[in-house]
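Backbones bend. Shown next:

***
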Amino acid sequence: MRYFLTKHLSLVVLFSLLFNVVSAAKAADAKAFEQVNSREALEQALAKHKGEVVYLDFWASWCVPCRKSFPWMNTIQAKYQSKGFSVISINLDANYDLAQKFLIENPASFTVIYDPKGQIAKHFAIQGMPSSMLIGRDGKIKQRHTGFFTKKIPAYQHEIEQLLSK
């Protein structure tokens, strides 16, 4: 009986350690997260993608539709990047740890900027979560969306394709 308990206790400890290592590795992957002056980070990101079509997305960890939008944003980033397209997302959580946890659960293959004071959201007069806008190659806002609806994905992609063709 003692051998049985010792063996199972050892397995529990081993799996706990393994889980902690995997969690730490996932946390390291989510480090592509700007924690600097939010406005400066956005200006730098937009400058880096000057002349491209940019999908600018505002999200928060508590936002259920935001969780649905991340896989799609990863897909469009991969699909259109070679044509001069980029996704930049702005997180509005006041608590950095909540945003990090979200990114571990919903990885991003695009730029993520942390805006805990909502400076960027205020500048763009964001009304709800998620909110997004399409910025044309000329740097001007071409479309605005409040909410994310999977049934509208074909319309969102059509807007992107129209801007990319110009």
